[in-house]
Amino acid sequence: MAQTCAKLESNAVVVGIDVSKDHLDAAQYPSGDLIQTSNDTKGLRTLLRWIGRQRAVHVIFEATGPFHRQLESHLAKASIPFSRINPRHARKFAEATGKLAKTDRVDAVMLAKMGALLEPRTSDICNEQQSALQELAAARRNLIRDRTALLNRQQNLQLSLLKRLTRYRLRQIEAQIAAIDQAISELISTDGSLSRKRAILVSIPGIGETTAAMLIFLNWEHWKMDRLLRSQVWLLSQDSQESGRVKSFIRDDRIHVRNTLYMPALVAMRHNPDLPSI
To answer: What is the dihedral of CA 252, 255, 258, 263, to 10 degrees?
Structure first.
């Protein structure tokens, strides 16, 4: 999850790869060469041979959940630097350059151009613990979404059968969330570095064990979190939220971080009177 800064060589060939479940579409910049391979071991070997013909190369691809993991692993083993970027950022770049069509090959070419022009930071491969945290955190977010949707629908239900089934499903979801929280806690406890991060995060007023675990997954350090929490508390405490400066600051941070910090910010605002005035 961590990223390191690395300047692309001036003559580096940038390879953009569009990742899907079954295929990998790759494009080179500036040559424009294209290749499509299967997203499996055989296809990845073919892709790496194609990439390996270049003396200096940097690979760009979007984070696509489980579909990019094998690609990432093969690139790391071959010592090929890569950048794993947010799909939303890639889409915004495409819109800014007027590329509104969306096909696998078009996306691969767009990613290669994005890498050449913006020179994104080099990403590190996720280790086994980080991958497990990613899966658990993604599953937890999906359950939270399901719970919210059910609670909203529950208000409009009239039939007793549907009400009973909804209550049953809500209990299931709560049990599954609790099981995931327990698994995340145990996973963090097995790693000394992650345990120390959790201890620092929970020392910040308003942040509990569950929030700390989510923030560890999102790879935010405690000093960033303290600053963002204070800003969010200040925003929530204002009668008017029309300040362009504050809204811009909040918008620039990751959506999952903001969502994770919403309730802690409310708690901190109500129980730590010093924060809103900071």
So the answer is: 160
Exposure string (b/e) for 63-83, b if CB count within 10 Å is 16 or more?
Answer: ebeebbebbbebbeeeebbbb
Residue with tokens 């691969």: 108
Task: Supply the DSSP symbol for 121.
Answer: P
What is the Cα 31 distance to its own chain's centre?
Answer: 31
- Give a three-class secondary structure readout of 217-228: HCCCCHHHHHHH
The whole-angstrom separation of Cα 82 and Cα 72 is 8
The DSSP H or E segment spanning 25 is strand 23-29
With a threshold of 0.70, does the pTM exceed it?
Answer: no
The DSSP output letter for 54 is S
Read off the DSSP letter of residue 32: -
Dihedral, 129, 133, 135, 140 alpha carbons, nearest 10: 160
pLDDT, tens digit, 9 for 90 and up, residues 187-201? 889 888 888 888 887
- Name the percent of the chain in helix, strand, coil, to the closest 5: 60, 10, 30
Q: What is the DSSP letter of 125?
A: P
Asked if 173 and 147 count as a contact pair (C-beta separation under 8 A), the reply is: yes
